[in-house]
Amino acid sequence: MGQSAYIRLVDASTTQTVQLQDIKDKFHRYIDMTTKTGNQLDWGYAEAAFPYTLVEKPEGKDHWFYLKGSNPLYKYIVVGVGTDQANQAEGGEQAEESQFIQVVLPDGATHGDKSKANEFCKYLAKEFKAQLDLFNGRRMYYYPRKP
Q1: Which residues form a coiled coil (predicted)?
Q2: Torsion of CA 24, 28, 34, 36, to 10 degrees
Q3: Inter-residue contact 135 to 122 (CB < 8 Å)
Q4: How far is residue 108's CA from residue 131's CA, in Å, rounded to a whole number?
């Protein structure tokens, strides 16, 4: 069984719903930014920053896609969207549905995949101002929190 990280959309997030196309758009923006950085540095930074190709399977339509490594140091990262019931502190209240982005490292993923997956998770959490539950169980907050 692979490892998973979750990017959970919270009340303070930039959006309360996310579609798979939104995530693809964020990845395309990431590739565009790294390409421009590489052009400024006169170096192929985009290939080093995003050594994957985005692959969609018919069975995963609108639910998940995967990033296939274009370098022997990288293999696969799976990215999907889903919903779950948010826990309510007070008993008797209706549980509210919340959306999340799940990033999975399948069996056989390399250390490079894990490093890139952490980087992509942090990027997506920052873009959506979301809560990030990392592969190691630690939690990072990318949204404004009240003291």
Answers
A1: none
A2: -160
A3: no
A4: 27
**Largest interatomic CA distance in the chain:** 60
Domain ranges of the chain: 3-86+97-136
- The CA-CA-CA angle for residues 44, 20, 67, to 5°, reads 40
Q: Give the DSSP letter of residue 71.
A: S
SS3 of residue 124 by DSSP? helix
Name the class of domain 3-86+97-136: alpha beta
Convert the pLDDT of each residue in 103-137 to its tens digit. 999 999 999 999 999 999 999 999 999 999 999 99
